[in-house]
Structures are given as C-alpha cells and as structure tokens.
Amino acid sequence: MIEPIGYNDFNDYGGYNKGVQLTFKNISYKVDNKNYKKNKKNENEKKKNFDPEIVEINIDNLNEKEITILNNVSGVIEKGELVALMGPSGSGKSTLLDILAQRKSTGKITGQLLVNGKEIGEAYKKYCSYVTQEDVLLQTSTVFETLKFYADLKLPGVSEIEKIKRVEKVIEDVGLTLKKDSRVGGVLAGGVAVKGLSGGEKRRVSIGCGLITNPSLIFLDEPTSGLDSVAALQIMKTLLNLTLKGVTVICSIHQPRPEIFELFNKVMVIIKGKMIYSGNYILEYFESLGYSCPNNKNPADFCLDSAVTIGKSSNYLNICLQWEKKWEEELLNEIDYPPVNVDIPKTSSWTYQYWILLNREWRGFIRNKGNALSRVITAIVIGALFGSCFAGLDETDSDVQKIMGTLFFLTTGLMLSPFSMITLFLSGRELFNSERASKIYHSFPYYLSMMTVELAIEFFVSLLEVTVCYTLAHLRWEVGRFFFAVLVYSFIHSLSTFFISSLANLTGTSDLTFSYASSLSVIFMLFAGFYVPTNELPKAFGWLHWVNPAFYGYSSVVINQFQDLPLKCTDEPCKFRNGNQVIEYYGIEDWTKGSAFGVLVAWSTFFYSLSYLALHFLHREKR
Ligand SMILES: Nc1ncnc2c1ncn2[C@@H]1O[C@H](COP(=O)(O)OP(=O)(O)OP(=O)(O)O)[C@@H](O)[C@H]1O
Residues 537, 433: one domain? Predict the structure, then answer.
C-alpha cells in the first residue's frame, strides 16, 4: 500500500490563496467545417441518387459550415475538489479542459467562466497549471534542470536555495529521486536519439512541471496514461493530497482502476460534446437511467461503457435535456460563491526570462554534440575546399574571375548551410507552443535567446570558414578588410538563418519550408551579380537584384576585395589594371562596401522581424 505523499511542508511562495471555485456556464465551442464545400458537393450527388433504403448518414450534419464540438456545457468545481472528466474517446474532454484552462486559441468559444463567482481576468493563467497529454520536454535537459527551469520562471523573487528545495521536493513526490540527474531523452531534431527516461517517467516530469508553483487550480489531460498501475495510483494520491490543502484539481481520465476512481470527489460525464452528469453519485444516477453496475465490474469501466451506450441510444438527447434542466433549475441556484479574491502571483521580467532561456538554449546546443561538431567540421571543410580549388591566387587581371568565384561560393555556401536547421526550428516550435500556452515566458525573450545563441555560433562558423578560405586562396589579407569580410559573411549566414526560420514559422512544415527556401535561394544566387553583372541583366529582370539580399552581401565583399587594388597584367590587352575597374565592370561602382553592407543589415532585420512575428502569431496549436 502506497502512503499518500504530503505537501504540508510546502510553503506558499507565491503568497496567493490555495484553491479556487471554478464555475463554467453554457460553454459551447465551434470550429469551421473545412470539408464544408466537399460535403456540400457530395450531398448534391447523393440527393441526385437518393435511395432511402441505403442512405444512413445524416446529410444535414455534413452540410453545416461550423462543427459544434461542445454544446452548452455547464458545471461547478468546488475549491479542493478532485474532479474526473470522463467520456468516450472524441467526446470533447480535452477540448473542455483546454477551454477551462484558457488554452484554446482557435475556433469560436461562447459561455462564461467564473472563479469564485467573478469573471476570470488576465491573471487567470498565472494561478493555474496545465499538464498536457503529450510530454513535450527538452530532450537534452535533466529532470532537475527541467523542473528548475519552471521554478526559475514561475517563482520570481524566491531565493535560489528555496527554489532548489522546492524542485527536490517535487522530484521526490513524483517518484523520480533516483532519476534526478538523468536526461529526459528522446529523438533530437535531425534524428539523433538521446538515451533517457521511460514514457511513464516523462509523464511524471510533466506532472512535476505543473506542480512546481503550488498552483490554485490544476488541469491534467489524462495524467495516468502511460503509467503502470502503481505509478498511476501514486500520482493520483499526490494530486489528492494537493486537494486536501485546498487546491482544485481537474483531470480528464479514461478507464481508471477502482482504487483511483474512488479518490475522485466528483465525476463529470461528457458524451458527444454534451454534459450528461456532474456530481458524486454517478452510479446511482446511471441506475436511475436504467443502467445498473454489476457487483464485479470496475465502476469506471461501467461508467464509460454506459456512456458509450447512451451516446448511441435514441434516448441520448432526452438524457442531455434532462441534465440541462436539472442544472438550470436546481444546481445553478445552489452554487455558493466564496467571497474571496484570488491574489495574483508575480511574473518574472523579460530580461530575467531572457537570461534563463539563454542558459537553456546554450546548454541545449552544447549537449547536441553531433550538431555542434558537424557545423564546425563543415565550416572547416568547405573553407578548405574553396580555398584549395582557388589556391594561391595572385592579384592579376587573369585571376579576377577566380577571385570573384571564390567570393561567390563562400557567399552561397554560407547561405545554404542554415538549410540543415529547418527541423531544429520546427521541433523547437513544439516545445515553445506548449510552454507559451502555460504562460511561463513571452515569445520575445524566447526568440531573442534562441537567436543570440544562433548568431554567436554563426559568427564562429563564418570566422572559421573565411579564415581557412582566405588563407589558402590568398585573398586580400589586411586586418581591417579581413574582419570586415568576416562580419559580412556572418551577416549573410544569419540573414539566411532568419530567412529560413521565417519560412519555417510561416509554413509550419519542413517540406514547404525546404521547397520555398530552395527555389528562392536559387533566384538569390542567380541575381547576386556573379553569373551576370547587374548592368547586363535583361531589362525585365533588372530590378531583381535590388530586392536580392545576396546581391548586397556579395557586392560588399567584392568591393572590400577590389577597392583601390592595383592589378598586374599578365596578358595584353589587359582587361583590368586595377580593382576599381572590376567593380565598374560588375556594375556596382555606385555602392560603397559600407552602404551595401547597410542594406544587408536592413534585410537581416526584416527577416528577423518577419520570423518573430510569424512565430508569435501563427501555428499556435495543432488542432
Ligand atoms: N479545432 C478542431 N477542429 C476540428 N475538430 C476538432 C477540433 N478540436 C477538437 N476537434 C474534434 O472534437 C472532438 C473532441 O476532441 P477531444 O480531443 O476534446 O476529445 P477527447 O474526449 O479528449 O478524446 P480522447 O479521449 O480520445 O483524447 C474530436 O472528434 C476532435 O477531432
């Protein structure tokens, strides 16, 4: 027999009241029917060949522009209650939980949500926790680091020692003391597998993240899924102990074993988007409807089986109406709203969020050794390859074309290398969406920290590649010009990173990102000014180089290389006697290296902002 785990030694660091009463009235949720037009067409076809003998589907339902997922759902959850949300698969449990936790950002939600009888405000999410059904965790962090990250962001103003104590207590409560320093593990973006926790252990880490702040209201979407029966009971007892402190806990749950089912103070049953019962006498209620639980049957299994049967029966709508009537006429009037205001927990500042996120981002990069090493090795190999192909160039008119080629291939090499980051951007986005929905940080510090680490790496990679290539190819090796070239190349690299991350954030899929990014990169390369000098472009395409960021990067390094450079003539007639003639030949004499670099920086800023805005506003949730 597992002993319940106490929370008595937890301090209320946030200083806010534990536990709240939550009332939801007439909640409905509708989404656009994406198949509306297709269904309408099919319906017309069916009407043409209508045969009442064989048509079974309800044509009217397929025909609606909006699909109703939840329909007029109401209920009350008292302070300190442990509530089970039950129903057949697809009945709307997770959707209701998402709406109660204010995590739905798509579809049309109507109805009222009250905390202690008052409309919920902006701070609502700060005193609730939500534990998702899927475990979205950073694979490279340890159990301790994962929980400490939540403690750092969600417990501002609490001392380091207290935060560590809190983290260790939660780790103990979710039964992971022996795994405290194990990595979470999983498959990293790019396919590298990191050994780590089992599925059930990850579940416990996710639950621990929800418990770290000692919240007033906890929502858990199927907290016991993936756990063995002992671990499931242990987790549920942990939750029960929280409720004894007054915390309100709501879980969606499928088929709990009888010992777990007994722990719940209240059961809510949803069938096909409608509530049919909410209370603590579920078996008696089903009996009154004519469904009796056999003695030897698990009551949770019985409830679910009965719910499935009711959903299919012709009496379903009557049962729903009967419950709605009971709610309107009896239960609603019996609600006793506690006269307590909920204190709002503090939030950490953006600078602090940035610092914590930066640390995590950097740790993630260092621990993803395969990625870090491959980027460094690729930079050295590519730099050496270009440098060797054009090795020992002289400052002569006959080597001008080769020098132009070296500069161009360095530019394109650095433009193409961020393609390998597509999966990294998209997998990071899943974690970001999950953490943002919990309101633990703002998107801006997240994006800034991610890009700070990326920019630092890119500067280092560019420095390596340019140093190797410039040394071997004998490009203009003066301190000022060399470092200017490194700066331009690292901006070309970052611009391409921002460009690809914009596409990833706009499209949300790796296939589309790859396809758009590769097509546009080819256009960028074609009109960069190497293959065809800008003044020789056909008139119809002449404008293209003006809107081509690669043109500005390439022009900047070409001017940096050739400006005021005397060239030796190897053959007569001599094509170029000095570098300025080269600059003129390529049609970029109106630019200085500084002005072209300035436009490159402006393009980088544009893609940086576009990528951030797409991250902030698009693809918030999968469903
Ligand atoms: N945004 C959406 N667009 C279209 N359909 C949706 C959307 N959100 C939910 N649904 C549909 O609503 C139904 C209820 O989904 P929900 O995930 O809430 O069910 P559930 O009871 O939690 O199921 P399960 O127990 O299998 O997790 C499902 O059929 C789901 O496909």
Answer: yes
Ligand 1 atom at shortest distance from the alpha carbon of 69: 12
Dump pLDDT digits (tens) for 98-147: 999 988 878 899 999 999 888 887 778 778 889 988 888 999 999 999 99
Mean pLDDT of the chain: 85
Q: What is d(CA 172, CA 312) in angstroms, rounded to the nearest whole number?
A: 45
306 lies in the same domain as 400: no
For ligand 1, atom 31, which residue shows the shortest CA distance?
A: 90
Residue of the nearest CA to atom 10 in ligand 1?
A: 69
CA-CA-CA-CA torsion sign (567, 568, 570, 571):
positive
In short, whether 8's Cβ falls inside 6 Å of ligand 1 is: no
Q: To test ligand 1's pocket by mutation, which of 95, 103, 250, 251 has the most ligand atoms within 8 angstroms of CB?
A: 95
* pLDDT at residue 387 is higher than 50: yes
**Burial (CB count <10 Å: 0-12, 13-18, 19+), residue 594:** exposed
Question: Quick one: which atom of ligand 1 is closest to the CA of 87?
Answer: 21
Q: Classify residue 142 by burial, with Cβ atoms within 10 Å: 0-12, 13-18, 19+.
A: buried
pLDDT digits (tens, 9 = 90+) for 335-360: 888 776 666 667 789 999 999 999 99
Most distant CA pair in the chain, distance: 107
Q: Which of 440-449, 537-546, 549-558 has the lowest mean pLDDT?
A: 537-546
Domain presence at residue 311: yes
Q: Are 319 and 232 in a shared domain? A: yes
Same domain, 566 and 485: yes
Q: Do 602 and 472 reside in the same domain of the chain?
A: yes
Residue 132 lies in a domain: no
Same domain, yes or no, for 123 and 256? yes
Indicate yes or no: pTM above 0.95. Answer: no
Token representation of residue 352: 């602090």
Q: Give yes or no: residues 402 and 457 share one domain.
A: yes
In a domain, 172, yes or no: no
Q: Which helix (H) or strand (E) covers residue 302, if one does?
A: helix 299-312
**Cα–Cα dist 339/300, whole Å:** 35
Q: Among residues 315, 334, 353, which one ends one of the domains?
A: 334
Residue whose Cα lies nearest atom 1 of ligand 1: it is 623
Atom 29, ligand 1: which residue's CA is nearest? 90
Q: Which domain holds residue 297?
A: 22-127+215-334
Helices (H), 313-398: 316-326, 332-334, 350-367, 369-389
Q: Could you tell me if the CB of 32 is within 6 A of ligand 1?
A: no
266 & 372 share domain: no
